[in-house]
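Hi R.,

Here's the chain you asked about this morning:
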Amino acid sequence: MSASQSDTKLVVAPESGLSEAQVRALQTRLQATLKDLSREDHDLRQQLASDEVATEHAVVDGAEGALSVEANLEVITQIQHERQEMGAILAALDRISAGEYGLCTDCGAPIGQARLNVVPEASHCIDCQEVAERHPGH
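And the predicted structure, written out as tokens:
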């Protein structure tokens, strides 16, 4: 975090029940996680590219070829998962900037510090999260 970020006054939604210090600590965690995920994403993409180059230059048949394809699919799945996580973190950082962090994006209720300590990128209160998990796409 730059010095200007640490000196910047955060706009904290009073309804969230969070203090400026709590939001700033969660913001720092989110930024660190985003940096780690970006590094992992880069490394996985390099691994995938080098595996694809190696496969292109070798004749791979049978079980060995199947294992290579399966390994590449696992890397692709990891990249997709990390991309989703990065998107959720960026959205949380946007909510911090907008002064909307800590409030459910569906109902507007406070998410709660305990939940945010475990899942700092959470965008839903427990009730709305349960509904979203029971009825995906609604």
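The longest helix spans residues 20-56.

Let me know if you need anything else.
M.
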